[in-house]
């Protein structure tokens, strides 16, 4: 099974992708997470990515994305299903994403689109924190009560993601609307998009996704 999960910032797509990966034994390709890891390396590519995602708060260009996608797909056995988290995110990517699917003998079964209002998205992101070591996500007020708490898994520091500023979120929401929604629509025309309300608890969202996926293998 090959899935794509898309949704605005704070929609919980990363959490749901992780749960789906566990349930169906899928490889979780989280493009944003991978790019953030490269961005802290200090290499020329890392510096370039840091400038794009953390300073300009834009999308990474096609040349980089295409290379990363190929590297990820090359390393995987074809029997292993994938959940693509946050890719394809815009029209240009759709073209080489589809070409890569053909090249690597895969096809996309479903697109999971997690809907969330702008208001809720901004509210959730203001509460989002991340472990600076293992990248586990925490919600302030739900998972942690104080800013100086340590990561439960690795004892790392819990911090704000650098791109999670209010103006950064607004900019990324705008990009989601103009660049990513056409991808959702493209797959909707093929009958592959399932729409899920993200304004519910994690387990209810997961239950809704499983219900909509039905019995695809
Ligand atoms: P995310 O973790 O999904 O919020 O992604 C964080 C950042 O990584 C985005 O704001 C983009 O700058 C970059 N990024 C992630 N996925 C893509 C993609 N498919 N295309 C271009 N840039 C991406």
Summarize, please.
This protein is an alpha/beta fold.
Supply the helix-strand structural class. Answer: alpha/beta
Number of strands: 8
Number of domains: 1
Question: Rounded to an integer, what's the Rg over CA atoms?
Answer: 17 Å
Bin the strand percentage. Answer: 15-25%
Which kinds of small molecule does this entry bind, naming each only once?
adenosine monophosphate
Question: By CATH's scheme, which homologous superfamily applies?
Answer: P-loop containing nucleotide triphosphate hydrolases
CATH architecture tag = 3-Layer(aba) Sandwich
Shape: globular
Q: Bin the helical content.
A: 40-55%
Terminal Cα span: 6 Å
Mean pLDDT: 92
Strand order of the largest sheet: 2-3-1-4-8
Characteristic key phrases:
single chain, 217 residues, alpha/beta, Rossmann fold, three-stranded antiparallel sheet, binds adenosine monophosphate
Blueprint of the fold:
Blueprint: E1 2-6, H1 13-24, E2 27-30, H2 31-39, H3 44-56, H4 62-74, E3 82-85, H5 91-103, E4 110-115, H6 118-127, E5 128-131, E6 137-139, E7 158-159, H7 166-189, E8 193-197, H8 202-213
Parallel strand pairs: 1-3, 1-4, 2-3, 4-8
Antiparallel strand pairs: 5-6, 5-7
Helix pairs in contact: 2-3, 4-5, 6-7
This protein binds adenosine monophosphate.
Q: Can you tell me about this structure?
A:
It is a single chain. By secondary structure, the protein is α/β, with parallel strands linked by helices. It has one domain (2-116, 167-213): P-loop containing nucleotide triphosphate hydrolases (Rossmann fold, 3-Layer(aba) Sandwich). It is 49% helix and 15% strand. The chain is built from 8 helices and 8 strands. The chain has helices at 13-24, 31-39, 44-56, 62-74, 91-103, 118-127, 166-189, 202-213, and strands at 2-6, 27-30, 82-85, 110-115, 128-131, 137-139, 158-159, 193-197. Strands 2-3-1-4-8 form a 5-stranded parallel β-sheet, with helices on both faces. Strand 5 and strand 6 (137-139) form a beta hairpin. It binds adenosine monophosphate.
